[in-house]
Amino acid sequence: MARDPRWAIAFKYPPTQVATQLLDIRVNIGRTGSVNPWAMLEPINIRGVTVSRAALHNEEDIQRKDLRIGDWVLVQRAGEVIPQVVKPVLERRTGGEEVYHLPEQCPRCGTTIVHSPERAMAYCPNTNCPARNGEGIIHFVSKGAMDIDSIGEKTCAQLMDAGLIQTVADFYTLTRDQLLLLEGTKEKSADNMLAGIEASKKRAFYRLLFGLNIRYVGEKTAQLLAAAFTDIEHLMVASEDDIINVPGIGPKIGHSVYNWFQEEANCALVERLKEAELNMREEPKTLSGPLVGQTFLLTGRLTTMTRPDAEEAIKQLGGTIATGVSKKLSHLIVGEDAGSKLEKAQKAGVPIHDEQWLIDLFNENQVNAGT
Questions:
Q1: Which fold, 18-99?
Q2: DSSP β-ladder status, 18-29 and 72-78
Q3: pLDDT in tens, 260-313
């Protein structure tokens, strides 16, 4: 079942770090309202790739690294892919650098930004913020959600700029003539878009839930909700306690999902999607196996299997993959370089196991978790 031979040794070479100047720090607004700062850099070449911007995560991360506008900074590509600002080059400071603070108002809608007491993130709370809405529309057509592969980010922007799309339900009223009004769109492209939109109506129910852009509802959470409530009607009338009592769903997620369905605009959106005949039902599945009723969460890096392979093997045995640590979690599996989930599980009294425990469990039940 091991992915790599036990005798093999993997060497990880340190990433190449290059110095450049941090020209500015700007923000964009995510689909859930998160305020995401990013670094505008003097373009540099790192191992054949030109890098001119990098994510900065949040204000706390900027302050922890003591990054200032105008600094010379060291930049690397984390995992040889993602641009990352490592630290400032302090000896090159001149005294003219500017300490950064997040804006007090959303740069798109002007709403006062709020800071979450639980997390380092800041948010635009305006659900009608055009930036949030735009990112939500792009998310809806993405591969993990409704997978309308004939419509990408650029086309979404064109549709919004033309006033043809204001909510995701508007995709299902688009006509060929409207699409042909978009710059660069020919008959074949318009037909492909309409075919992609039509095909999306048959996507699995959990993908619709994921695409609706409910805060804290990722793909795994959407699967748990779809399996527990089986259709949109049951979920819409569920109480907050009903949602929280789903194995793998915690109070924070339950509160967010419940509140989303209390919003009149969201209920109206669901009704429009019903009229468009999207799939809003999950066929009930009868779970079987020795792990039925048990929830698992994996953290850290596994060395003998990939995390998706391990999670799939757990599901084959009837177990459920949780979305976060809670007192209801049955097992936390800890790999190398485990993060904050380990500390949370220890405080919550959750049973904690290492990778070998999981390997023994799979071997005992004759389940293969990847090769």
A1: OB fold (Dihydrolipoamide Acetyltransferase, E2P) (2.40.50)
A2: antiparallel
A3: 999 999 999 999 999 999 999 997 766 678 998 899 999 988 988 888 889 989
